[in-house]
Design a protein that fits this description.
By secondary structure, the protein is mostly helical. Helix content is about 70%, strand content about 5%. It has five helices and two strands. Strands 1-2 form a two-stranded antiparallel sheet. α2 packs antiparallel against α3 and α2 runs antiparallel to α5. The longest helix has 27 residues. The two termini are about 15 Å apart.
């Protein structure tokens, strides 16, 4: 590495510049690719839509207790979307897989596969961000 390279936001940085105080959430909000930030939003919006549709269906079918599961899903989506939490994305994906498995056992056909696709998309995005963040922490260069 040369003594001076282009660092965060095009500023000159030398090898002694400290990037260790930048959190992952701050990295995502300020320095991550806009495409990746939009991918997180897209996954969350798709999850919100699925949760809204599920809520309406369960209320119409007369099972208001299912709303609690939907509220947990929305909470995880908010953690993923606003909190930039990979853990929420992983838990959301696990919950979607479990829900699909229960639906498969109960009805004989898979249900909720769109929710699983949303979860996979979100986790894939966070894994990509993790790789970029680790590289950023290592080099300090975007």
């Amino acid at each position: 590495m040369s003594e001076y390279e282009t660092g965060v936001n095009g500023t000159e940085r030398n090898e002694y510049t400290d990037v260790s105080n930048i959190t992952k959430k701050e990295y995502i909000e300020k320095y991550a690719s806009p495409f990746l930030r939009n991918d997180i939003k897209k996954a969350a919006v798709a999850g919100y839509i699925c949760s809204g549709i599920s809520a309406v269906i369960w209320i119409v079918l007369g099972n208001p207790m299912a709303i609690f599961e939907i509220l947990v899903a929305v909470g995880l989506l908010l953690g993923m979307h606003l909190g930039k939490s990979k853990a929420c994305a992983i838990i959301y994906l696990c919950m979607a897989c479990l829900d699909c498995l229960v639906g498969l056992i109960a009805t004989g056909r898979p249900t909720g596969w769109i929710i699983i696709a949303t979860g996979i998309y979100a986790v894939k995005t966070f894994v990509t961000i993790d790789k970029q963040y680790a590289e950023f922490k290592r080099t300090g260069i975007l």
